[in-house]
Amino acid sequence: MKTLFLSPPSFDGFDGGAGSRYQARREVTSFWYPTWLAQPAALVPNAKLMDCPPHDIGIQQCLKEAQGYDHVVIHTSTPSLKNDCKVAEAIKKQKPSTLIGFVGAHAAVLPTETLKTSSVIDWVGRKEFDFTCKEVAEGRPLETIAGLSYRDKDGKIKHTPERELITNMDTLPWVADVYKRDLQIEKYFIGYLLHPYISLYTGRGCPAQCTFCLWPQTIGGHKYRVRSAQNVADEMAYMKKLFPQVKEFFFDDDTFTANLPRAREIAKKLAPLGLTWSCNSRANIDYDTIKFFKDAGLRLFLVGYESGNSDILQRIKKGVTLDEMRRFTRSCHEAGVVIHGTFILGLPIETPQTIENTIRFAQELDVFSIQVSLAAPYPGTELYEMARQNGWFVKKDKTDIVHEDGFQQSALEYPGLSKDAIFEALDRFYHAYYLRPKPILRIVKTMLEDKDVFVRRCREGYEFFRSLNQRKEDLALSRSTAGAT
Asked: Are residues 361 and 452 in the same domain?
């Protein structure tokens, strides 16, 4: 069947490609690549990938494009499910014969509930769905396809046996050609990456046990399954020729450094290519390894510090201590590797004091840039189960984790710490971190060194403070609504 892989129109600025962390609207324009759709799209002949939010594609243009396809695969998420169902219903209304499948972590964890959300959904892919999509597109009977949930002729929901995870990752085709054919790479921005950038996976799964992280607990698994170093190096050489304008390549594996011997082998093969690359890393690598990566083209680590409180780090099973984080950060500073650090407010069991611990810890680390998120208890994660069992959810609808404007909202609260207090702390965190001499001077320096960066930082600054104001309005609305009820 002629197949369209679709990231539907959604909230303004909604980043549905952020698989492992959270799907939401960011403080500044940010879009990750839809790699999880690009991979099956590369498996299906004559398929097309359409990523609507980054390309400013509205519902009418989306429907017009979908009309030319027999089969539409929609990537959904917990915060976007209701919206995605409306898009699917509009597609089905204009062409009732269209076969519609939903994939993504939410569909994988809650296949029955996802199918019940809308009668127009014909099938749902569970776990790793690349070859599930391929086999549906080939026209195979749904009941014969592993890893799939569907409605039979009588309308009853059926589940086929689970599909085994892919063990030989080299069997997957490269995503480079799909990116080139279907995406305008200049539309993808990440505030801390050079522009234009490209992100891709060299492996799936993560051995870490972090209770909040979505993808390893729902789709990827806790075993790090990887492509061979040569396979990765070959695709990078191909991408360099295909995208000469790209300034940075980002390896979006949950933890690229989880297998250090392999990571070093890849870095060694990348060095002759002269690429600038970055990756996700845990804060537990020694100086010599960091320096080796730096010499091979590494520019930046994306590091999840999460909290500055050791008790919280233990509860979320972070597996890295505060002292290890300090040593790693000092080593990066010494080696000249930039760090974008991420922190989360509202993890179990947050208090006013632990929030202050985290703010002070972030200031002490003094990494180049930070992102502060609110704890997002996605279905299928250990955090979700902990919240359900302990009554930490704010709302009856446990999947209601973003505001109507797409920004995150506080989904959890604890004794002595309300959802509003957690929400307000996010604004305070950003101000306490960035309104200091060092961060201001760092940002100004990068702006003075490059005209394009100057223009970009001005735009991002405007978006950042506008988003903080929008959050304040969201908080005021939440309080007035609570008062009215």
From this structure: yes
pLDDT tens digits for range 204-257: 999 988 998 887 888 888 899 999 999 999 999 999 999 999 999 999 999 999
Tell how far CA 31 is from the center of its chain: 9
184 occurs within a structural domain: no
pLDDT tens figures, 262-275: 999 999 999 999 99
Q: Are 247 and 198 in contact (CB under 8 A)?
A: no
Dig out the tokens for 190 from the structure: 């990440």
C-alpha 120/C-alpha 232 separation (Å) is 39
Tokens of 195: 């522009």
Nearest one of 67, 74, 137 to 98, comparing CA atoms: 67
Report CA dihedral (204, 210, 211, 217) to the nearest 10 degrees: 10
The verdict on 119 and 235 lying in the same domain is: no
Q: What whole-number distance in Å separates Cα of residue 283 and Cα of residue 301? A: 9
Give the burial string for 235-264 (b: 16+ CB within 10 Å, else e): bbeebeebbeebebbbbbbbbbbbbeebbb
148, two tokens: 């799939």
Please return the burial class of 139, using the count of CB atoms within 10 Å of its CB with bins 0-12, 13-18 and 19+: exposed
Q: What are the residues whose beta carbons fall under 8 Å from the beta carbon of 382, sequence distance 6 or more?
A: 211, 212, 217, 317
Task: Answer yes or no: are the C-beta atoms of 4 and 66 closer than 8 Å.
Answer: yes
User: Where would I find the beta strands (DSSP E) of 10-164?
Assistant: 14-15, 24-25, 48-51, 71-75, 99-103, 123-125, 148-151, 157-159
Residue 326, Cα to own-chain centre: how many angstroms? 25
On whether both 197 and 150 belong to a single domain, the answer is no
Mean pLDDT, residues 387-393: 92
Residues 149 and 195 placed together within one structural domain of the fold: no
From the list 387, 384, 423, the residue with the least C-alpha distance to 403 is: 423
CB atoms within 10 A of CB 396: 6
Residue 358 structural domain? 190-460
Question: Is the residue at 84 inside a domain?
Answer: yes
> Residue 72: beta bridge partners?
4, 100
59 and 117 assigned to the same domain: yes
Instruction: Give me the DSSP letters along 336-357.
Output: T-EEEEEEEES-TT--HHHHHH
**Do 186 and 29 contact (CB within 8 A), yes or no?**
no
The domain that holds 428 is classified in CATH as 3.20.20.70
Q: How far, CA to CA in Å, does 164 sit from each of 145, 148, 351?
A: 12, 12, 42
